[in-house]
Amino acid sequence: MSAPYRPGQPQWPANGPQRNPDRPPPIQFRQDEPRPAGNPALLWGLRILGLVAVAIVSGVVWYYIINDGKPQNTANQDPGTEQRSEGAFDFGPHPDMAEPQTDTDCAAHAYGRIQKHLQSTPCDHLAQQLFVTEVDGRTVYASVSVVTMPDEEKAAQLRALTDEDGSGNVSDVVRDGAVTIEGLDRLSGGGGYAAKQNGREVVIVEADLDPKDQSADEAGQKKDEDEILDPACEDALRLAAKVESDAGG
After folding, report:
1. Separation of first and last alpha carbons in the chain
2. What is the pLDDT of residue 190?
3. Structural domain of residue 141, as residue ranges?
4. Which of 35, 39, 120, 183 would be a feasible disulfide site paired with 211, CB 3.0-4.6 Å?
5. E strands, 153-249, where?
């Protein structure tokens, strides 16, 4: 036990460390409070939006890379311009024959030796349609006939026969009476002709000018045939695919 304190005696220093008054107070360290956790749904949403933005930018860059130098889209072009780009002339269906006519009896729509040939060698079916175009301000009518034979060999026989002079032919739609054009009883009179074979199909095109656009003299008529009708027939051969497709072939 410690001795009791007596007056006049020096007082014992208090227990514990003594602070020098000249020293600054010790630095107090405290732990920062944790930040509140963010919204996980919001964070994921932002991440997804970022990925989508990157994908869009990458897609746009890739599109311009692969399409560099390619022709522009013609979806907004005039339909007549687009159709003309497929061939030399801008053909359209005649108003009186907007859809092709079809028949399984091809001989009934032919004449001459061609008719006899189709009687002995029946076709599968016939599809025909009349088209019209303008060349240098002149109206041209073109009858497109698509004869589908049972096989390619029979189609080749018919194709060879159509090229022979005086063999007859499959009747054009004006001669057949499917369409009436004032001043014309047939299109074969103008001399415009073209034919080709596509597998089992034999395509036959005959064309003539509208009577009001025909030349009065023989020399002028020959010029029309050479410079307008034959090229128009050659170009109209491509319409066979449309005729056959619209006919349901």
Report:
1. 126
2. 82
3. 89-246
4. 183
5. 169-170, 192-198, 201-209
